[in-house]
């Protein structure tokens, strides 16, 4: 079992985490004006790089979202980083 590091709770087993997607996949703006093709691209098409990937993850027990770098070849994962919300410094 892999151990991931939540920036809020520390190291925990991977079973406590949920994958949220590619960090570089911005949600389309203007919900009612987005074409079905654009939504499909956002929801289903992924970069799937070989090597280092920056991803969203959620630690289920605390409910926090964070960013994590993970190597898709070796599965090595760096410590998670808290996401900064707009308006926060």
What does this structure look like?
The chain is mostly beta strands and 89 residues long. The chain is built from 1 helix and 6 strands; from the N terminus they run βββαβββ. It has a single domain, classed as Folate-binding superfamily (Folate-binding fold, 2-Layer Sandwich). It is 10% helix and 36% strand. The strands form 2 sheets. It has a 4-stranded antiparallel β-sheet with strand order 3-4-5-6, with no helix packed on it. The model has no long low-confidence stretch (mean pLDDT 88).
CATH class: Alpha Beta
In angstroms, what is the radius of gyration?
15 Å
How many structural domains in the coordinates? 1
Task: Give the topology string: H per helix, E per strand.
Answer: EEEHEEE
Largest sheet report: 4 strands, antiparallel
Mass-distribution shape: globular
CATH topology: Folate-binding fold
State the low-pLDDT regions, or none: none
Name given to the CATH homologous superfamily: Folate-binding superfamily
Regarding quaternary structure, what we see is: single chain
Distance between the ends: 35 Å
What's the total helix number?
A: 1
How is the largest sheet built, in terms of strand order?
3-4-5-6
InterPro entries: SoxD, SoxD_sf
Protein name: Sarcosine oxidase subunit delta
Pfam families: SoxD
């Amino acid at each position: 079992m892999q151990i991931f590091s939540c920036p809020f709770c520390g190291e925990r087993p991977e079973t406590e985490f949920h994958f949220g997607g590619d960090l570089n996949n911005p949600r389309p703006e203007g919900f009612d004006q987005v074409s079905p093709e654009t939504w499909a691209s956002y929801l289903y098409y992924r970069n799937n790089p070989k090597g280092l990937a920056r991803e969203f993850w959620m630690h289920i027990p605390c409910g926090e979202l964070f960013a994590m770098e993970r190597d898709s070849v070796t599965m090595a994962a760096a410590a998670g980083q808290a996401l900064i919300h707009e308006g926060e410094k």
